């Protein structure tokens, strides 16, 4: 008999195929009538494999009284109500570390693309303007600039290494100071004030909602750049749009947005922003490694062994 698990969304195809071969899978995202679907699954489902931003809240947990584990595809678990899981004794796992290098690659690509305007340079050439109008306008160097990392965890450290290789200096702010060779700032405003590039790498969720607010963007100032590879919720998005339109900051590189995959169309008109469709971990190798970890956590849990990467 296969163990019953539930998918919350469409996700990495290879991972979902393996899960479907090993478990009896119920696909919540394909249910026409969600209530009827949950009613029929309620006495069977013992695990959730969560994919994407679909919320896993207390109501969903209550609809599945036999639920023992939520195994998330991704390091960020902001869509899961962790307190609700804890109260109900439900294990939550994620997929840390295996994505650090890829996410850091994307972060540094956003810094290069934003300061050096490389996507705009390419569009300029493809539109025939090089021959027509001459060289593209001069841009901004990375070397000698300061990157302020808001949320220096394992991904932040991988970003710092790459930024230093580009000749940048590193500062950071975390709630707690770490034993690292980088200058510490006591709050996000001071960090922004001391930085040319503010790199947002914090977890998402209520604790960091709109952490990058008017005070932080004002401190970053008209010569400062914002890069966000964390969650859209960490930045006040309407305000960021306004600051970019009015050039109250110099530019932004964004891999994440508040209501993905919907991006306010006003962002598309900005010349001082580089926008990626949440691709930081999106390589064949890394997504496979994330999926393998998600699957292994489920296997181990149902075999009565300790999971590998427990959050709650
Ligand atoms: C993925 C991510 O885009 O790990 C995370 O927290 O945001 C990304 O790696 C996401 O998990 C894919 O659904």
Tell me what you see in this structure.
The protein is elongated and about 70 Å long. Helix 10 (214-220) links the parallel strand 9 (197-200) and strand 10 (225-228). The strands form 2 sheets. The chain has a 7-stranded parallel sheet with strand order 8-7-6-9-10-11-12. The protein is of the alpha/beta class and 312 residues long. The chain is built from 12 helices and 12 strands. It starts with a strand and ends in a 10-residue tail after the last helix. Bound molecules: 2-keto-D-gluconic acid (8YV).
Key terms:
12 strands, 12 helices, alpha/beta, seven-stranded parallel sheet, binds 2-keto-D-gluconic acid, five-stranded parallel sheet, about 300 residues
Q: Helical proportion?
A: 25-40%
Indicate the proportion of strand residues.
5-15%
Helix-and-strand structural type: alpha/beta
Low-confidence stretches: none
Going across the major beta sheet, what is the strand order? 8-7-6-9-10-11-12
Summarize the structure.
37% of the residues lie in helices and 15% in strands. The protein has 312 residues and is an alpha/beta fold.
Task: Break the fold down into its secondary structure elements and pairings.
Elements: E1 4-7, H1 13-22, E2 24-27, H2 34-41, E3 47-50, H3 58-63, E4 69-72, H4 82-87, E5 91-93, H5 100-116, H6 118-126, H7 129-133, E6 146-150, H8 154-165, E7 169-173, E8 183-184, H9 188-193, E9 197-200, H10 214-220, E10 225-228, H11 237-245, E11 251-254, E12 273-275, H12 284-302
Parallel strand pairs: 1-2, 1-3, 3-4, 4-5, 6-7, 6-9, 7-8, 9-10, 10-11, 11-12
Bound molecules: 2-keto-D-gluconic acid.
Residues 51-52, 73-76, 99, 278, 281 line the site of 2-keto-D-gluconic acid (8YV).
